[in-house]
Structure formats: structure tokens, C-alpha cells
Amino acid sequence: MMAIGTGHRSNNYSESKRNHHLDNNRRQEQRNKGIPNKSHPNFREEHKSFSSIFVSNIPWNASVQDLWDICNKWGVVIDVYIAAKRSKSGHRFGFVRFINVNDINQLVSNLRTAWMGDFHLSADVAM
């Protein structure tokens, strides 16, 4: 014979799980406010002017702001990411996203002349 309270606890548990799920959905919606939906059919069309550049040989003490400032000399930087791990060759690396790049080859060429302290940056178009 089943205890009288068992079914009641079970209902409360599933109701609390359902409320927790709804709270997570609300938080996710709030986090995504203002962020473009990448599945939107015109997302690629509207944002095709972005260019991502892979940058390596970043000094260990360099911050995202340091890399931003160096790269901003040759174009309008909109995002910088520096990976926490090293490349296969043991260097620190990251990605810089530019907007409205007219000549990506010239941009990469300019970035290859950049130095951060004693580190000569390496740059290439991100695939």
C-alpha cells in the first residue's frame, strides 16, 4: 500500500521543476534582449560587413583592451576575444572582429606589422 503523502510530494516536485524551467526561460529571454537572432533570415545579409581576423603571438600579460587598441589603428574593431589556452605552437592567440573592411588583405598585412612589446603579432583571415 502506498503512503498517503507520496503522490502529493511527487506533484509538488514536478510543479517546482516546471517553475524552475519557466524561470530559466525568462532569464534566457532577458539575456538575449537586443542580441540579433542568428536564425533570422536576413542576419547574414545585414551583417556581411564583419571580418574576423585570427591573431597569434599575443603577449601573456596583454589584455583584451591592449589588443583592441593595437588593432583599432587599422580599422573599426567591434569585438576582441583572447583564448585562455595556447595554440599548438605554444603561443597565445585570439580573434578580432572588424566592421566595414574595404580590403581585408591590406588589413591583415597591416596587422602583421604590429608589435605588442617584444612580441611581433601574426595575423590571418579567420576561417
UniProtKB/TrEMBL annotation:
Residues 15-32 have a biased composition (Basic and acidic residues). Pfam families: RRM_1. Gene3D superfamilies: 3.30.70.330. Keywords: RNA-binding. Residues 1-44 are annotated as: Disordered. Residues 51-127 form the RRM domain. The keyword RNA-binding applies. PROSITE patterns: RRM. This is Nucleotide-binding alpha-beta plait domain-containing protein. It comes from Tanacetum coccineum. The lineage of its organism: Eukaryota, Viridiplantae, Streptophyta, Embryophyta, Tracheophyta.
